[in-house]
From TrEMBL:
<dbReference type="Pfam" id="PF00871">
    <property type="entry name" value="Acetate_kinase"/>
</dbReference>
<dbReference type="GO" id="GO:0005737">
    <property type="term" value="C:cytoplasm"/>
</dbReference>
<dbReference type="GO" id="GO:0006085">
    <property type="term" value="P:acetyl-CoA biosynthetic process"/>
</dbReference>
<comment type="subunit">
    <text>Homodimer.</text>
</comment>
<dbReference type="GO" id="GO:0006083">
    <property type="term" value="P:acetate metabolic process"/>
</dbReference>
<dbReference type="InterPro" id="IPR043129">
    <property type="entry name" value="ATPase_NBD"/>
</dbReference>
<keyword id="KW-0418">Kinase</keyword>
<comment type="function">
    <text>Catalyzes the formation of acetyl phosphate from acetate and ATP. Can also catalyze the reverse reaction.</text>
</comment>
<feature type="active site" description="Proton donor/acceptor">
    <location>
        <position position="146"/>
    </location>
</feature>
<keyword id="KW-0808">Transferase</keyword>
<comment type="pathway">
    <text>Metabolic intermediate biosynthesis; acetyl-CoA biosynthesis; acetyl-CoA from acetate: step 1/2.</text>
</comment>
<keyword id="KW-0460">Magnesium</keyword>
<feature type="binding site">
    <location>
        <position position="14"/>
    </location>
    <ligand>
        <name>ATP</name>
    </ligand>
</feature>
<keyword id="KW-0479">Metal-binding</keyword>
<feature type="binding site">
    <location>
        <begin position="327"/>
        <end position="331"/>
    </location>
    <ligand>
        <name>ATP</name>
    </ligand>
</feature>
<feature type="site" description="Transition state stabilizer">
    <location>
        <position position="237"/>
    </location>
</feature>
<feature type="binding site">
    <location>
        <position position="89"/>
    </location>
    <ligand>
        <name>substrate</name>
    </ligand>
</feature>
Amino acid sequence: MLVFILNAGSSSLKYQLMNPETTEVLASGLCERIGIDGKLIHESNDKKIKQEIEMPTHKEAIEVVLNILTKGEEKVIDSISQIDAIGHRVVHGGEFFNSSVIVNDDVITKLEGLIPLAPLHNPANIMGIKIAQEIMPGKPNVAVFDTAFHQTMPASNYMYAVPYEDYKDYGVRKYGFHGTSHYYVSNEARKMLNKEDSKVIVCHLGNGSSICAVRDGKSIDTSMGLTPLEGLVMGTRSGDIDAGVLSYLMEKKNMTAAETVNYLNKKSGLLGVSGISSDLREIIEAAASGNERAQTTIDMKCSRIRKYICSYAGSLEGVDAICFTAGIGENADLIREKVCDGLEFMGVEIDSDKNKVRNDKNREINKDSSKTKIYVIPTNEELVIAQDTYKLTKAL
Ligand code: ADP
C-alpha cells in the first residue's frame, strides 16, 4: 500500500510518499512560496533536487509533485493510480475528533466550522483535502489531527477559569497541539520503558514548542492552549504571559487586538528577547561569544521548560521518562543539559557524555543511577499519519 501524506500550509505544502507497512519513504519534499514564485525541494532515489517552478495555487503545487513522482529521473511510481490513499495533517479538530477519520462531507463541514479557532491553519488544510479529492477522485482521504491526542485531558486541565458560558458558547478551552508528535514519542518511550502504566513527559522543542504529560499512553495535560500561543517560549511566540500585557501593549503601541496577538505570535519569543534570530543556533553562538541578552534568552527558554516538567511531574505523581524531540530537542545537547540540571532532587540525572552523542536513533541519555529515564526520540509525525491512513482505509 502507498500513502501520499500532505501537510498544507498557507503558502507551503510538505509531502511524503510512504509505504506504511514497511515504513519505507519513497519520496519527500516541500513546495514553498506557493502563490508567490514557487520553489520545490524534492528527495527521491537518494537524490535531492531544488527547482524554481511556478505554483500559482496549491492545486498546481500538488500537480507538480505528482508529476515528479511519476516522470523523469525522480520517478518512483508509474502512475497516480498506485497511490492508495491520502493522509492529511489537519491542525484543529476541536472537540469533534479524538482520533483520525476518513474524510466525508460531514467532516469537511465540521472542519470549516472550526476555522475561527484555527484561522491560519484549517483553511489551508481543508484546501489540501479538496484539491486531493479533485485531482485523485475516488481515493480515500484521511484527516489526522494535531489536537486529537489531547482530547483525553480531564476538564480540570483543559478548562480556563473564565465564565463557563464561554466554554459552552464559544468553545473557549485548552485544545493543545503537536498531538501526533506527542503520541508518537510517548509511545516510543513506553516501548523503551517496557511498562504499560507509564508516566512520561514529552518536550517537543522546535520552532513551535510544547510539552505534554502522558499517563498510561494518554495525554492528561499539555502546554499549548486554545491556540498554539500558550506555554513554552518559542521561536517567535511568547508562550505564557499575563493577559494584562495585551491591553497594556495595545495602549502603549497603539495596536489593535489582532495586531497584538500577531506581535506575540510573530515578533516575540526567542526572536523578540534576543533581538538576534528565532533560530536557537544563532542565539547559542551569540551567547558563546559573550552576548548577555542571548544568554538570558537561553536561560528563559530552559527555565520555562523546567517549570512545566516539575508541574507535570506533580500532575503525573512521578515521572518514569522525560523525552526530548523536534529540532531543538533532538539536536541541542546544551538545552537538554540545562533543562535537566538541578532536577536531581526528582531523580533526573543526565549523563553529559551520552547527551553529547549525535545520531538519529532513539537513545537514552541518563546516568545508570538516574531513577528517571531521559530519552532523545526523533519524532515521526508522517509515520503516524501514514499508519492511521492505512488502518482506516485498508479494508475499503
Ligand atoms: P518546526 O517547528 O519549524 O518544525 P524544527 O523542529 O525543525 O521546527 O526545529 C527548528 C529549531 O531547531 C530551530 O530553532 C533551530 O535552531 C533548532 N535546531 C536545529 N538544530 C539545532 C542544533 N544543532 N542546536 C540548536 N538548535 C538547533
